[in-house]
Write a structure and sequence with these properties.
Elements: E1 3-9, H1 15-31, E2 36-38, H2 50-57, H3 61-76, E3 79-88, E4 91-101, E5 107-112, E6 118-120, E7 126-128, E8 143-145, E9 148-152, H4 161-169, E10 174-176, H5 183-201, E11 204-207, E12 209-215, E13 218-221, E14 225-227, E15 233-236, E16 245-250, H6 253-262
Parallel strand pairs: 1-2, 1-12, 2-3, 9-10, 10-11
Antiparallel strand pairs: 1-16, 3-4, 4-5, 6-7, 8-9, 11-14, 12-13, 14-15
Helix pairs in contact: 1-3, 4-5
């Protein structure tokens, strides 16, 4: 039975140090026998603002980051899921890209984040992701991994059931949501949303997470976890400390198949009644 590892850590604007942390987590996962490790959104860097982001993106550090991750994946013979910032030629905005790297250090698949967060609380954090990021334009097909067929999503995407259901209909057995959830929304919504996506699609959900105080302006919730198709949390990283950590779980596709056969939720959907939704 394949083993998945989910990770969390506190990224900063130091891209080289973030790469060292990611490589260490990859090595740890491999030592535990995991076939694949899932790392958080913005694994390459979390900046303090537009000026720092622009400086990082204009340097060679992001390219070096990916080179180190690919090299470590190959050395450790493990697949890697992670999210990085990518420049767009002729555009000040970036892609927020979820990559799957195979155990040979090659890019197997990618997904540009489709849903960009808008958060404008009168008392609390304010953020509009579309100010710096270009939205992805498609939901791709699941990619075959050592764990099973994996559907790629990201963070804010978990608030929308439609892409998760679409990926399930396209054959997904696992959904990945690398994330950098704010503390206040995380406390209220993180686990309920992830469980909802797992239950409604009868899929494993793997959500890596950023955790802790990244800078004066940004802190994140953590609680990286793996949820089974019944909605049970089967692995979770420590939530009381900011040190880099991983948690592991078996991905039992026989259990998934049995559950889908005994309770055929997707087949029972009445699309004829809500085809105009959206």
């Amino acid at each position: 039975m394949p083993i998945a590892a989910v990770g969390q850590f506190c990224a900063t604007g130091d891209v080289a140090n973030n790469a060292r942390i990611c490589c260490d987590l990859i090595q740890r996962a491999a030592k535990f026998g995991a076939e694949m490790i899932f790392l958080p959104e913005a694994a390459d860097f979390v900046s303090s603002g537009e000026e720092e982001s622009s400086s990082i993106m204009s340097s060679k550090e992001p390219l070096k980051f990916m080179e180190k991750i690919k090299e470590q994946a190959k050395q450790s013979k493990i697949w890697v899921s992670l999210t990085v910032h990518e420049p767009i030629d002729g555009d000040k905005k970036m892609w927020n890209t979820h990559y799957i790297i195979n155990d040979q250090g090659k890019e197997e698949s990618f997904y540009h984040k489709a849903h960009l967060m808008s958060m404008m609380f009168k008392e609390g954090p304010q953020m509009k992701e579309s100010d710096s990021t270009h939205p992805g334009e498609k939901i791709g097909h699941p990619v075959q991994t050592p764990l099973g067929k994996l559907g790629l999503q990201m963070c804010y995407d978990m608030r929308f059931a439609e892409p998760a259901i679409m990926l399930r209909q396209r054959g997904a057995e696992i959904l990945a949501y690398p994330s950098a959830f704010t503390v206040n929304t995380g406390m209220a919504h993180w686990e309920p949303l992830l469980k909802a996506r797992a239950i409604e699609t009868q899929s494993f959900v793997i959500a890596a997470a950023q955790i802790g105080q990244h800078n004066e302006k940004r802190s994140t919730y953590g609680h990286a976890m793996i949820i089974d198709p019944w909605g049970t949390v089967i692995a979770q990283c420590p939530s009381h400390k900011n040190e880099p950590s991983i948690a592991i779980a078996n991905i039992d596709l026989d259990y998934l198949s049995q559950l889908r056969e005994e309770m055929p939720v997707i087949e029972d959907r009445r699309v004829d009644l809500y085809a105009q939704l959206g």
